[in-house]
Design goal:
Elements lengths: L1 E6 L3 H16 L5 E6 L3 H10 L5 E4 L7 H10 L3 E4 L11 H11 L4
Parallel strand pairs: 1-2, 1-3, 3-4
């Protein structure tokens, strides 16, 4: 499963991506998680189409005003987009982010 975590500058998404990888490993899931900036997202989605398509894009809560446009971009490339809750930065184990991914993929228990 290929996941992108998007934020404005890439700093906060890096922490979310790290925790998400850890949580996925503990659940026995194989994932590729990459932190990207909002500006880099279109290029990442386009490049992924020819290589390994993106399954889910998690969007930082501070990008909520831009979320509809981001979700549209993702849909055009076959990816599910989910807006992260404002509490995501206090989620120390990555469980809530992984739950969002699994909900997007229709595989949450």
């Amino acid at each position: 499963m290929k996941i992108l975590v998007v934020c404005g500058a890439g700093a906060s998404s890096t922490f979310v991506a790290l925790r998400l990888r850890r949580s996925a490993t503990l659940r026995g899931l194989t994932v590729s998680v990459t932190a990207v900036t909002e500006a880099d997202l279109p290029a990442r989605l386009s490049a992924a189409v020819t290589h390994a398509p993106v399954d889910v894009v998690l969007v930082g809560p501070h990008l909520a005003p831009a979320f509809p446009a981001i979700a549209q971009q993702c849909a055009e490339h076959g990816a599910q987009a989910r807006l992260l809750p404002v509490t995501i930065f206090t989620d120390r184990d990555g469980e809530s982010a992984l739950d969002l991914v699994q909900d997007a993929m229709g595989s949450h228990p």
